[in-house]
Design a protein that fits this description.
The protein is elongated. With 204 residues, the chain is mostly helical. The chain has 9 helices and 2 strands; from the N terminus they run H-H-E-E-H-H-H-H-H-H-H. Helix content is 66%, strand content 2%.
């Protein structure tokens, strides 16, 4: 398909597609002439991923290009590449430190394996520090209540990861970025439902 047809398939204007091509978010098509190229289904998929990373997740072009490069050609072991890709997500970009005492204590309490270089460890440390500063430190009872539910969600997610490295990275990064807001919203809606059941006055 020509770039005009790719635009019609994806709903992305031709100037935006040309921007994606210039910035390396979209791989070139097969040249048909000096000014015309042919694009296929993989380009349709890549446009959708590029839009998700930039428009929905909120990555900069540079960050999206870094993640897409990992998708296309992971040069490391999958686990390492996944850590690097997830580290580009907005919520994971918190300052590094030499140690993460709160996160380490929580993870060791749960008996979970972790790599201190993983961006989510820094994210957890920052969140626990903020909760502590607000006078609501995470106690073991709450941690023990949260952990099984979170682990169950993670087990479901990991069971669905495709075997191909590129698809695995794409699934993990987009799944993390796009579904985390869903989990937050569902938790708040569950609070509302339970609070209504527990505290709302009985109807007439």
């Amino acid at each position: 398909m020509l770039i005009s047809e790719l635009s019609a398939r994806t709903g992305v204007p031709v100037p935006t597609l040309k921007f994606y091509l210039r910035e390396g978010l979209l791989m070139p098509g097969t040249a048909l002439s000096a000014t015309r190229s042919d694009y296929g289904e993989e380009h349709v998929r890549r446009v959708g991923v590029a839009r998700a990373l930039t428009d929905v997740v909120g990555l900069s072009v540079h960050q999206a290009r870094t993640v897409l490069a990992l998708f296309a050609s992971p040069r490391e072991e999958l686990f390492e590449a996944l850590g690097r890709a997830l580290g580009e997500l907005p919520a994971a970009r918190v300052p590094e430190a030499d140690d993460y005492p709160r996160a380490r204590a929580a993870l060791e309490h749960l008996g979970w394996r972790y790599d201190p270089r993983y961006a989510a460890v820094r994210q957890l440390e920052r969140a626990l520090e903020a909760a502590e500063a607000a006078g609501m430190p995470l106690n073991d009872d709450r941690l023990d209540a949260y952990a099984p539910a979170v682990r169950s969600i993670a087990e479901h997610d990991v069971a669905l990861v495709p075997e191909e490295p590129e698809r695995a990275l794409e699934y993990a990064v987009l799944g993390t970025a796009l579904y985390e807001p869903v989990l937050v919203a569902l938790r708040r809606l569950a609070h509302h439902d339970i609070a209504a059941e527990r505290f709302a006055p009985p109807g007439p």
